[in-house]
């Protein structure tokens, strides 16, 4: 509901609940989401089925270079990089969306430290 969306999220546990709940409701393929960070920009995420996997593409908008850390974080796991170069990531259909949510939380926490940003997801 819109009242909850407008309320300032004050701590990491609330942001984590928001992110995990949102991603839990996404299908295991063919999804899109935007995470907007107040006064900084947004990360667009599109997932498409490709065989038994989800091909994920990121679109970074605004002056928020730390989203690039997402790609480097995933880059440590060679299984998720798309060798064809057609997508930023390839994730398993089973559990891939939840894995993505975990990694996004890691990037947010490492980018913002003790002071959580004001975010919206849509």
Would you mind describing this structure in some detail?
With 122 residues, this protein is of the alpha+beta class. It contains 4 helices and 5 strands. Strands 4-3-2-1-5 form a 5-stranded antiparallel beta sheet. Helix 2 runs antiparallel to helix 4. The longest helix has 17 residues, at 96-112. It is globular, with a radius of gyration of 14 Å. It starts with a helix and ends with a strand.
* Record field, number of beta strands: 5
Q: What distance separates the N and C termini?
A: 12 Å
Mean pLDDT score, rounded?
82
- One letter per element, helices H and strands E, the order comes to HHEEEHEHE
Q: Which features would summarize this protein structure in a list?
A:
about 120 residues, five-stranded antiparallel beta sheet, 5 strands, globular
Architecture blueprint of SSEs:
Elements: H1 2-6, H2 12-24, E1 31-37, E2 41-50, E3 53-62, H3 68-75, E4 89-92, H4 96-112, E5 119-121
Antiparallel strand pairs: 1-2, 1-5, 2-3, 3-4
Helix pairs in contact: 2-4
């Amino acid at each position: 509901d819109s009242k909850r969306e407008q309320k300032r999220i004050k701590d990491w546990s609330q942001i984590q609940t928001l992110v995990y709940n949102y991603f839990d409701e996404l299908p295991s393929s063919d999804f899109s989401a935007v995470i907007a960070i107040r006064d900084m920009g947004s990360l667009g995420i599109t997932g498409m089925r490709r065989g038994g996997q989800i091909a994920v593409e990121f679109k970074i908008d605004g002056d928020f270079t730390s989203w690039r850390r997402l790609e480097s974080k995933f880059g440590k796991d060679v299984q998720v990089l798309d060798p064809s170069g057609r997508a930023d990531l390839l994730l398993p259909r089973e559990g891939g969306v939840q894995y993505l949510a975990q990694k996004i939380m890691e990037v947010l926490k490492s980018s913002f430290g003790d002071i959580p940003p004001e975010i919206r997801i849509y």
